[in-house]
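Many introductory courses stop at the sequence. We go one step further.
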Amino acid sequence: MKIKAEFTFPGRLKEEPLICNMCKQFDIILSILEASFSTDTGWAILIIEANEAEINKTFAYLKSYGVEIENIQNIAS
């Protein structure tokens, strides 16, 4: 399964290695299409490739830190 989604990160997380950690903790392949961060907030458009269970675990991990996930799209492999 391959998905594209928009992620919004609270500013308090700007020094946390969340993207690095999720690549280490979960069996996913990650591509960063675009990203930006300021003191108030950060955002990223990511493509994640994995089985559905790993994607769900990855989303739960990010949501536990207050990351918002929007515009989730399945894309062709």
